Amino acid sequence: MIVADRKPLTEILTMIEAQEKILIVGCKGCVTVCNTGGLKEVEILASSLGIARKKENRPLTIDTTIIERQCDNEYVEQLRDKVNDYDAVLSMACGVGPQFLSEAYPGQKFYPAVNTTFYGGAVAHGIWEERCAGCGTCIIHDFEGLCPIARCAKSLLHGPCGGSSQTKCEINPDTQCIWDHIVARKMELGKLEDLMKVRELRDWRSARDGGPRQSIREELTQ
Amino acid sequence: MRLNYPSEVKVLQVPCTGRVDILHLLKAIEDGADGVYVAGCLEGECHFLTGNIKTKKKVIYVKKILEEIGMNPDRVEMYNLSSAQGGRFAEIAHEMTEKIHKLGPTPIKK
Ligand code: SF4
Ligand code: SF4
Fold this sequence. Notes:
The structure holds two protein chains of two kinds. By secondary structure, chain A is of the alpha/beta class. Chain A is built from seven helices and nine strands; from the N terminus they run E-H-E-H-H-E-H-E-H-E-E-E-H-E-E-H. Chain A has helices spanning 9-15, 30-33, 39-55, 73-76, 96-104, 148-151, 178-188, and strands at residues 2-6, 21-27, 61-67, 88-91, 110-112, 114-124, 127-132, 168-169, 172-176. By secondary structure, chain B is mainly α. Chain B has a domain at 23-85. Chain A: It holds the Pfam family DUF5981.
C-alpha cells in the first residue's frame, strides 16, 4: 500500500488560517489501511483542528466525509454537490487524492493533510516499512525477494558497499543493510554464487528517472 | 465505605479501559471539559489483557495533539487502580481536580 503520515497540526492550521468553513475528505484506500486518512483519522483531525480554533476564539466549521478512493474519478465525482460549499478542502488521501480533486473541481482549493512517504506494509502493529520504490522493472526474484532498489540507501545492484557494518547500513544504525540480508539469505540457501553474476547496466528510464509515467492498457480503454 | 469525591467529576462507565477512544477524549476537550482522565485497571490486571495498556498509548497520543496545538497536555491523564481501591479512586479524583483547578478553566468556549 501507499504509506503516509499526517502532517503536523501546526502546518495544517497555517494552511487553513484564513478559512472559516472547511471539509475534510478521507479515503478508504491505502491511507485507511495505514491508519492515516481513514474515517477515524478524519474525525480525529476534525476534532483537533476544532479545539485549536476554538482556543483561538475563531471557531471553524468543519464537515467530514470519506470516499472509496480519491484516485478514482468515479468516486471523486460523488463530492460534486457539496465540494463548493466550503472555503477550502483538506484531503487526507495520499498525494494522488488532492491532485485528482483539484483536477475535478478547479474552482476549489485543496490542501494535502498528509505527507505521502512510501510503498510498503505493516511489519508489526503500528509499524510500516518501505518495500518498493516503483522502479518499473522488478528484479527481486534475483535477490530472494529482498528489494535492493527500495531497501538499499544507494540502490546498489552489487552490494554491500563499504558502509555495511554489523548488519546495519551506514546511513543510520537503526537501518538494516539489505545487502547484508541478501548475502546472508543466499549463504543460507547455498546460492552465494548467484551474486557473482555481473549485472548489466540498468535502464533507469522505467523508474522516476524517465519522467512521469503512464500505464496504458489498450484492452481496457474506451 | 462512604467516600467523597469532588462533585465536578463526571463518571462515564465503559466495559474496559480499552473501550476508551482517542475521539472520546478529544470530544470531551472540544466540548469544553476542563480536563479528562481515564481510570483503568492496574497494569497487568486487565480482564481483556491489554485494554489499559492500549488506552495508555491513546492518552499519550491525545496529550501530543494538545501539546501541538498549544494546550496544556496535563488536562488529559491516565490513572491505574484496582476496582477494590475505593479510597484510591477518591484520592485520584481529588488529585486530578486539584491539578485542573491549578491550570484554570479550559480556553475552549462552549
Ligand atoms: S525491484 Fe523495483 S518494482 Fe521490484 S520491489 Fe524493488 S523497487 Fe519495487
Ligand atoms: S550499507 Fe548496505 S543498505 Fe546501506 S548503502 Fe551500503 S549496501 Fe546499501
